[in-house]
Amino acid sequence: MRAPPEFTWKQCLIIRDDVKMSCGKKCAQIAHAAVGAYEKAGAAAKRSWLDEGQKKVTLKLTGERALFELKVIAEANGIPACIIQDAGLTEIPPGTVTALGLGPAKSELLDRITSDLKLL
User: Fold this and answer.
1) What is the DSSP string of 64-85?
2) Transmembrane segments in this chain: where (predicted)?
């Protein structure tokens, strides 16, 4: 029997809980955040995260400002970050900031800046 992986790498995907969106819309915004942050990561981080099984944690917070503040903190710590703004074609107005993708990055680094957020 194989030991479970340790997951030293992960992505944190954060959705705004103060923007009214259907479950499907939230999922789409989180997916955009995951891809956007991944594209900003370095090759070594991408490979390590992919090799481990691509761990992702989905979190929530309230407010556009809080999302941008977290992005600034992440980038100051060398964590790839991507803010998502909706195109406004379906449920919410164009330009609405909906989500933030962080990582892939070392789990311990992400935990330092996201440990106070609640799971989605």
Assistant:
1) HHHHHHHHHHHHHTT--EEEEE
2) none
Domain hosting residue 48, numbered range: 9-119
- Per the structure, the count of domains in the chain is 1
Q: Which amino acid is at 37?
A: A
What stretch of H or E contains 58? strand 56-61
Flag whether 18 is in a domain: yes
H-helix segments, 4-89:
23-40, 43-52, 64-76
What are the backbone angles phi and psi of residue 20, rounded to the nearest 5°? -75, 115
Is residue 40 in a domain? Answer: yes
49-96, pLDDT tens digit by residue?
999 999 999 999 999 999 999 999 999 999 999 999 999 999 999 999
pLDDT per residue over 3-35, tens digit each?
A: 776 889 999 999 999 999 999 999 999 999 999
* pTM, full prediction: 0.94
